[in-house]
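For the sake of transparency, this paper describes our internal protein records without simplification. The remainder of this section carries one protein's record, kept here as part of the documentation:
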Amino acid sequence: MTDGTTDGRPGGGGTAPDRTRMVIGGGVAAVLLAIIGAAGGWVLAGDQAGPDPVSSGATGTPTPTPTVRTSPPRRPPTSTTPTRPSSSPSPSRPTGLTVPDLVGMDFEEAREKLRDLGLGWQLVFGSGDGDSVRSTDPAPGTPVRRGVTVKINVAGAAPPNEVPDLIGEECNEAGAELVDDGFSPRYPGGRSGTVTAQQPAAGTVGRWNDVVQLRCGTPPSADASAPAP
């Protein structure tokens, strides 16, 4: 019989190898638990925070940010309408014509001088004596155009004037004759035809600037005015 010891040590049978297996098995279990815990923590962390939005889950490479293209500013359409030249009137060219110095002249002589220059006239008589020109408007030396009316201020009152006989004359010619004689013609019925009547009558003594009315038209024929047989 044996007492269960070998080489002076108590015999335990197979206890030493069993302890070694237990130690190794415990270490392996600890490693597995550590790996499982780390994996579980990553999973839990992944549930709370997703992957980096700039990384691709498949390759781990950064996802390129899309480029935003801005369209260039549009130019306004070019007008094809031709530019018209300015329609503003050009300044009038000087004619070299000026109002002559008529002061001191007889008003009839002053009137003829204005007529020769192509200017109109208007006689304005005063209340004093004399037929001389006292002033003009515009003043002497003022640049004017042809056709402008010059006012002649006469020192004295309008002198007497006799109305001419104008019956039977062409209406326009009769009016021009009245102007030459110092009267102001009026045409109540128009200027066509010949003078059939006038007012005041021929030979009436009036004054310069008096109005003479001329009735113009076609005079009645002698046959129409003769009584029927």
